[in-house]
């Protein structure tokens, strides 16, 4: 539907929008047109202006935005404590001892983490041994 504003500008209002407004708000066709124009900022409605002014004075929107910001603020994480695992340390030590005895003398063996990784460099080739403890099945 085409509607002419007071300033002579012609606005095309979708018929679906008008019928939806009429049904959902149970208003007349003319009221639906005015509501659509007001919602889409073609005209200003005094009631809407008054309510917006009241909301600005009460700082309702600022309170809402502040509540959202507080909710989305991330909590500080506690530093993670490393749990000692003596069994894994014994296994890594045993692997290190076995590699030291059986690899050539020019091999470089480095323990990055005393319970997890052993890095090897043999003849210019790099290797990593990674020890993983699996959880028991339920």
Task: Considering the chains and any ligands shown, give keywords for the structure.
5 helices; 138 residues; three-stranded antiparallel β-sheet; alpha+beta; 47% helix; rod-shaped; two-stranded antiparallel ribbon; 2 domains
What does this structure look like?
The chain is α+β, with helices and mostly antiparallel strands. The chain has two domains: 2-72, no CATH class; 86-130, no CATH class. It has helices at 15-25, 29-39, 46-58, 60-72, 86-102; strands at residues 2-4, 10-12, 108-113, 117-122, 125-130. Strand 4 (117-122) and strand 5 (125-130) form a beta hairpin. The longest helix has 17 residues, at 86-102. It is rod-shaped.
The number of helical segments is 5
* Helix/strand/pairing category: alpha+beta
Give the fraction of residues assigned to helices: 40-55%
| Amino-to-carboxy terminus distance | 67 Å
Overall body shape: rod-shaped
Mean pLDDT: 83
Q: How would you describe the oligomerization state of the chains in this entry?
A: single chain
Largest sheet: 3 strands, antiparallel
- The order of strands across the largest sheet is 3-4-5
Please report which band the strand proportion falls in: under 5%, 5-15%, 15-25%, 25-35%, 35-45% or over 45%.
15-25%
- The domain tally reads 2
Tell me the total number of β-strands: 5
């Amino acid at each position: 539907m085409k509607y002419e504003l007071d300033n002579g500008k012609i606005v095309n209002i979708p018929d679906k929008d008008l019928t939806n407004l009429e049904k959902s708000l149970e208003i007349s066709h003319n009221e639906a047109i005015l509501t659509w124009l007001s919602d889409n900022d073609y005209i200003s409605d005094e009631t809407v202006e008054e309510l917006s002014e009241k909301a600005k004075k009460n700082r309702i929107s600022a309170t809402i935005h502040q509540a959202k910001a507080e909710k989305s603020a991330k909590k500080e994480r506690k530093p993670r404590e490393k749990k000692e695992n003596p069994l894994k340390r014994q296994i890594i030590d045993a692997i290190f001892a076995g590699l030291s005895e059986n690899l050539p003398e020019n091999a470089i063996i480095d323990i990055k983490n005393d319970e997890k990784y052993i890095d090897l460099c043999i003849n210019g080739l790099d290797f990593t041994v990674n020890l993983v403890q699996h959880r028991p099945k339920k």
